[in-house]
Amino acid sequence: FFGEHNEVDLYGPRWDKNPAPFIKKIWRGFVEDKPKTMGGYTFALCFENAVWPGYVTEKIFDCMAVGTIPIYRGAPDIEEEVPAGCFIDMRKFKNYAELRKLLHVLTPEEINGYKEAIRAYFNSPRFQKFTPKYFFETILKIIRG
């Protein structure tokens, strides 16, 4: 959909082998520095490979860490882990045309609001369970029994 409007870039391996013309049109190659590349975008489609309660991967955090607003589709309970103001919830749109319409009317102030919410979330106790320190402490507790 977004490729038809020249509004999406696709990166990564194996896409160059896809014969579909629309893929060839939007594929931008391989990324040497994912954070740097992703950080150059205001939004990123951030769709999990599976939709299960509690299944949250690095995808949403990768976007937020570089100041890119995730357009998220994944865990139905995502708001239990990440505040709604930190991402655009794809479930709220019946199709990509509706999403596109929103993306084109967001003001710089509204975009900045998402980024401020992301920064606040990363500095909150709520985010701590996703940090390496928390992971290490959890594993250590398991080992110590």
Question: Could you please describe the fold and organization of this structure?
Answer:
This protein is an alpha/beta fold and 145 residues long. Helices cover 39% and strands 12% of the residues. It has 6 helices and 5 strands. It has helices spanning 21-26, 34-38, 58-65, 96-105, 108-122, 132-144; strands at residues 10-11, 27-29, 43-47, 69-73, 88-89. It is globular, with a radius of gyration of 17 Å. The model has no long low-confidence stretch (mean pLDDT 95).
Roughly what fraction of the amino acids lie in strands?
A: 5-15%
Order of helices and strands: EHEHEHEEHHH
What is the rounded Rg?
17 Å
Give the % helix. 25-40%
Adjacency order of strands in the biggest sheet? 3-4-5
The gross shape turns out to be: globular
Average pLDDT rating: 95
Helix run count? 6
Q: Strand tally, please? A: 5
Short description:
The protein is α/β, with parallel strands linked by helices. 39% of the residues lie in helices and 12% in strands.
Give keywords.
alpha/beta; 5 strands; globular
Topology, element by element:
Layout: E1 10-11, H1 21-26, E2 27-29, H2 34-38, E3 43-47, H3 58-65, E4 69-73, E5 88-89, H4 96-105, H5 108-122, H6 132-144
Parallel strand pairs: 1-2, 3-4, 4-5
